[in-house]
Amino acid sequence: MESSLVKDNPLLLAINRQKTIYDGFITVQVTESNILSCYYLRHCHFIILIFKDVFSPSLDSSQRLQQSADLVSFMLELKTVMEVGLKSRPECSSIPPPQYYSQLISEMETLGWDKLLSIDTEFQTLRLKVQDSAGRQHILIIKLKSKHPAEAPECSADLPLPLLITWTPQSTLAQIHHQFLLVLESLTEFWDVLDEIDRQTWILEPEKPSRSDTMRRIAIGNNVSIKVEVDPKHPKMLPECCLLGAELGASCLWSACRNPDSSLLLNLQDVLEIEFPSPATHEKSAFSVECGICYSYRLEAELPDQVCNNPCCGQPFHQTCLYEWLRALPSSRQSFSVVFGECPYCSKPITVKMPTHQF
Predict the structure, then answer these.
(1) Strand (E) or helix (H) holding 342
(2) Which terminus of the chain, N or C, has less C-beta within 10 A?
(3) Domain 189-282 has CATH 2.60.120.260
């Protein structure tokens, strides 16, 4: 069969010594004008991968491929053997039909192979790279179903809002890509606001903001910070803010007064009557003060946000560390979820709420 296969398909080349794996082109149809219509075999490698995964070397002689006279006979025999193998491997019954792969290749050719970042070995999970009008890079993950395009795929991305995709049996990957671009454009103003905050202030958390993060904790001064939650739908509106630090505890700020011609960052500075320290004027190490109990800055995802209110002290602590410290002291007392005690550094009164994971 090997000599017949190569003779009928001169653009086919064996890539192993056993001559069981080939690369190149195979003829699938001869037109009336005697022009060969070919498929590139590399696009068909999934058949080999699935075949090797489905069948073990212990198949009996009735399940082994025989020496077929031509390619058509070979494909028919391959189909029969795969049907037998699938019956013995129920977990492989979800393998998509050949039309699935043809549809996938056709849709990717329309969309553009340059947009494909990666695809899994099952040919069902695609990662597409997408660039919005501001030049930001995004990744769209598409999980296709075995009955694609009859079934709607699962789509996900790093967004602050749920990704809602409209799908019909006639929809394509190019249409998903277009819908995703529209979603990105609707969030351009939101990301512009956060990018300005990230560039011009020192962000204490999240340590590495993602495109889905809506919160920023901004350093104001030594042991003083503000937590800001930006609304993705109304990014320029003044958000609810939480001030953290010595003599502030955790106070909330609401304000409807804002200058519509100014950015969110400038409006925040006007409301607070301060100017945020920036990377151009301050080092971040000035704000990264370690916990006075465990001597580390980050305790898992927790930062030292419990501060002694004594102006002469102002030592920060992790909420968990301070709670465990005070709870172990005989002089401390607890009322409901609040523990009252003395600061480990200056012995002045200090309180802390029970961490939420303790409830």
Answers:
(1) strand 338-342
(2) C
(3) no
